[in-house]
Write a structure and sequence with these properties.
Distance between the termini: 36 Å
CATH architecture: 4-Layer Sandwich
Oligomer: single chain
CATH superfamily: Metallo-dependent phosphatases
Strand order of the largest sheet: 3-4-5-9-6-7
CATH topology: Purple Acid Phosphatase, chain A, domain 2
Number of domains: 1
Order of helices and strands: EHEHHHHEEHEEEEEEE
Number of helices: 6
Largest sheet: 6 strands, mixed
CATH class: Alpha Beta
Structural class: alpha/beta
Strand content: 15-25%
């Protein structure tokens, strides 16, 4: 992929993930992205599921023409059959979502790549070592498997809906963050949280601003008008975040060496 350049030969990226058909949240985040003067937006997948405006959200991301990877909900929705193990309510949710989208939309979702390199960093929806398996990366052991497969210094992933960062130098550690600096000689595996369905106890949408000029990663929290929940949770829920990931704001806390 050709490198993207913004002001002064650097790029300020907005990294969004897990929109989940939440139009008010996506609109609020886009407004904040504009206020932050980001040059490029990248999307970590899961445009659909849970909420009631999948068509509107897919249309926006398609019109933006941005780097975007496939999420598990995007795959479920664009597949002609429901995944094994889905209960009747979840299967009905998939059918409902498919009915809101055009055949062209479904084909576009189906054709999304699992991994994309963007100007020196990489994006994926779930784990990097097995992106098609939709593994949830909550702890340092799961993060270590992705970091071992990581070729670039900075990698962004979604899927868990929990903003957390893992860093590897002599060991792997991780925790919550608000803003930190990307340092040479280290690898970073970073989750920006969710636009459309936060799961870390904060009801605000979240995304990340990655500034390649000062090499900083900043977590942004954005309030939004809560949509009618009558159309929500159509496709079931993922696992709850593990309580072990906590830490002080402003840096990636040390959770000890990889075991």
């Amino acid at each position: 992929m050709q490198a993207l350049k913004g002001r002064n030969n650097t790029v300020k990226y907005a990294v969004i993930a897990d929109i989940h058909a939440n139009l008010p949240a996506l609109q609020a985040v886009r407004k904040d992205i504009a206020a932050q003067r980001c040059d490029v937006v990248v999307c970590l997948g899961d445009l659909v599921g849970y909420n009631s405006e999948p068509k509107e959200c897919v249309d926006i991301i398609r019109q933006m023409n941005i780097p975007c990877v496939k999420g598990n909900h995007d795959e479920y929705c664009s597949s002609p059959t429901s995944p094994s193990g889905f209960n009747p309510q979840a299967s009905e949710g998939l059918r409902w979502t498919r009915q809101q989208l055009t055949e062209d939309d479904l084909q576009w979702l189906a054709n999304l790549p699992l991994v994309v390199m963007v100007d020196g960093f990489t994006i994926v929806h779930a784990s990097l070592n097995q992106p098609h398996r939709w593994e949830y990366v909550f702890d340092k052991l799961a993060a270590a498997r992705s970091l071992q497969a990581q070729k670039s210094a900075v990698f962004f992933y979604g899927h868990t809906h929990v903003p957390v960062a893992f860093v590897r130098d002599s060991s792997v550690r991780g925790g919550t963050y608000t803003k930190f600096k990307v340092e040479s000689g280290r690898q970073y595996f970073i989750n920006p949280g969710s636009v459309g369905q936060p799961r870390d106890g904060c009801t605000k949408a979240s995304y990340v601003v990655y500034d390649t000029s000062d090499r900083t990663v900043e977590l942004r929290r954005v309030d939004f008008d809560k949509p009618d929940s009558s159309g929500g949770d159509r496709v079931g829920t993922g696992p709850k975040p593990k309580p072990s990931l906590s830490g002080s704001a402003g840096a990636v806390p040390d959770y000890g060496p990889q075991d």
